């Protein structure tokens, strides 16, 4: 159950309750104007709720418990990940999955994050590996281009988050640290992966193929016409209330395809990591950037929330009061519009 409270009111009771999930809820995100929210759950579903009526507007099914869900800045797509290693992109207008990515089969994908301008998608799994894609959008399509895979932590990765200015990537871990990775969109390590040249008469192991026609969610295809797998595209409608004509294509990128792509990108250096926040005593579960990307709040199983100044990697504030581990944090650091 999700309970919604009015923070501007002195009423301590929830103004609305959202019932429907049958297991633990793992993620909540709100539409930019608060008209709807999305939740993910261990019941293997992602649900979109009308915050005014409390009714379910969309119900999307995974095949494994869902760990995280985020709303794309275009407000017309969702990105979710699950314990089976799947990342799925959902088109709200068509109410359908348009992309399925499986970097490593049966390795739980813990967290996903989309850049504030929609240019990057980042994901991290339980092995501490981080995957980054470039996202390109036309008026009717989204194209994903893999550009980076690297080991961020030797232990479980619990959360990752791109900063509002898209210059930093924070990764939280069971190793008691948060690492801050530097992003420069013009640097080599974030260039998209080019298609390798090959003899047209020789099969290329780095070129798994993907049908341009309908793919089922398990990766099977119904068409023999195919294109190189590193470039993945699909259509979306930026207005969640609109309906476009024609069929919508679901594109899948399997674990075997990712292993082939890894041969192309592992020679690239990892993202630079100049800052390690290591004063945590136990697992770090979540983090939140300030609006100017200069500060980070972290929460930990040691019961504390900490406010860090990233330029000095120093703790500015340490908040106590929890009697158990703190596992989730949000920061309201944005000015109200005039």
UniProtKB/TrEMBL annotation:
<keyword id="KW-0853">WD repeat</keyword>
<protein>
    <recommendedName>
        <fullName>Target of rapamycin complex subunit LST8</fullName>
    </recommendedName>
</protein>
<dbReference type="GO" id="GO:0000329">
    <property type="term" value="C:fungal-type vacuole membrane"/>
</dbReference>
<dbReference type="Pfam" id="PF00400">
    <property type="entry name" value="WD40"/>
</dbReference>
<dbReference type="InterPro" id="IPR015943">
    <property type="entry name" value="WD40/YVTN_repeat-like_dom_sf"/>
</dbReference>
<dbReference type="InterPro" id="IPR037588">
    <property type="entry name" value="MLST8"/>
</dbReference>
<comment type="similarity">
    <text>Belongs to the WD repeat LST8 family.</text>
</comment>
<dbReference type="GO" id="GO:0043539">
    <property type="term" value="F:protein serine/threonine kinase activator activity"/>
</dbReference>
<dbReference type="GO" id="GO:0010008">
    <property type="term" value="C:endosome membrane"/>
</dbReference>
<keyword id="KW-0677">Repeat</keyword>
<dbReference type="InterPro" id="IPR001680">
    <property type="entry name" value="WD40_rpt"/>
</dbReference>
<dbReference type="GO" id="GO:0030950">
    <property type="term" value="P:establishment or maintenance of actin cytoskeleton polarity"/>
</dbReference>
<feature type="repeat" description="WD">
    <location>
        <begin position="59"/>
        <end position="100"/>
    </location>
</feature>
<dbReference type="GO" id="GO:0031930">
    <property type="term" value="P:mitochondria-nucleus signaling pathway"/>
</dbReference>
<dbReference type="GO" id="GO:0000139">
    <property type="term" value="C:Golgi membrane"/>
</dbReference>
<dbReference type="GO" id="GO:0001558">
    <property type="term" value="P:regulation of cell growth"/>
</dbReference>
<dbReference type="InterPro" id="IPR019775">
    <property type="entry name" value="WD40_repeat_CS"/>
</dbReference>
<dbReference type="GO" id="GO:0038202">
    <property type="term" value="P:TORC1 signaling"/>
</dbReference>
<dbReference type="GO" id="GO:0031505">
    <property type="term" value="P:fungal-type cell wall organization"/>
</dbReference>
<feature type="compositionally biased region" description="Polar residues">
    <location>
        <begin position="199"/>
        <end position="249"/>
    </location>
</feature>
<dbReference type="InterPro" id="IPR036322">
    <property type="entry name" value="WD40_repeat_dom_sf"/>
</dbReference>
<feature type="repeat" description="WD">
    <location>
        <begin position="18"/>
        <end position="59"/>
    </location>
</feature>
<dbReference type="GO" id="GO:0031931">
    <property type="term" value="C:TORC1 complex"/>
</dbReference>
<dbReference type="InterPro" id="IPR020472">
    <property type="entry name" value="WD40_PAC1"/>
</dbReference>
<feature type="repeat" description="WD">
    <location>
        <begin position="277"/>
        <end position="318"/>
    </location>
</feature>
<dbReference type="GO" id="GO:0031932">
    <property type="term" value="C:TORC2 complex"/>
</dbReference>
<feature type="repeat" description="WD">
    <location>
        <begin position="150"/>
        <end position="191"/>
    </location>
</feature>
<feature type="region of interest" description="Disordered">
    <location>
        <begin position="193"/>
        <end position="249"/>
    </location>
</feature>
<dbReference type="GO" id="GO:0032956">
    <property type="term" value="P:regulation of actin cytoskeleton organization"/>
</dbReference>
<dbReference type="GO" id="GO:0034399">
    <property type="term" value="C:nuclear periphery"/>
</dbReference>
């Amino acid at each position: 159950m999700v309970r919604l409270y009015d923070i501007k009111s002195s009423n301590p009771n929830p103004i609305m309750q959202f019932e429907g999930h049958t297991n633990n809820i793992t993620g909540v995100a709100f539409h930019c104007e608060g008209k709807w929210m999305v939740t993910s759950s261990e019941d293997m579903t992602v649900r979109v709720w009308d915050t005014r009526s409390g009714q379910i507007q969309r119900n999307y099914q995974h095949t494994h418990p869902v760990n995280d869900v985020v709303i794309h800045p275009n407000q017309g797509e969702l990105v979710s990940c699950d314990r089976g290693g799947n990342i799925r992109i959902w088109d709200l207008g068509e109410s359908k999955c348009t992309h399925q990515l499986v970097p490593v089969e049966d390795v739980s994908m813990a967290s996903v994050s989309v850049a504030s301008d929609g240019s990057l998608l980042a994901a991290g799994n339980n092995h501490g590996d981080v995957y980054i894609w470039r996202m390109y959008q036309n008026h009717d399509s989204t194209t994903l281009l893999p550009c980076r895979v690297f080991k961020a932590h030797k232990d479980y990765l619990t959360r990752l988050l791109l900063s509002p200015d898209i210059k930093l990537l924070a990764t939280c871990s069971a190793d008691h640290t948060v690492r801050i990775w530097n992003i420069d969109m013009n640097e080599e390590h974030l260039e998209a992966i080019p298609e390798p040249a090959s003899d047209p008469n020789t099969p290329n192991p780095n070129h798994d193929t993907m049908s341009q026609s309908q793919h089922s969610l398990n990766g099977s295809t119904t068409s023999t016409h195919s294109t190189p797998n590193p470039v993945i595209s699909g259509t979306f409608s930026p207005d969640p209330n609109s309906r476009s004509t024609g069929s919508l294509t679901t594109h899948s990128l399997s674990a075997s395809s990712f292993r082939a792509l890894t041969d192309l990108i592992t020679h690239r250096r990892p993202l630079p990591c100049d800052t390690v926040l290591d004063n945590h005593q136990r697992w770090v579960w979540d983090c939140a950037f300030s609006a100017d990307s200069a500060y980070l709040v972290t929460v930990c199983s040691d019961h504390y929330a900490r406010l860090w100044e990233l330029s000095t990697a120093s703790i500015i504030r340490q908040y106590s009061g929890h009697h158990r581990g703190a596992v989730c944090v949000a920061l309201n650091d944005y000015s109200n519009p005039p």
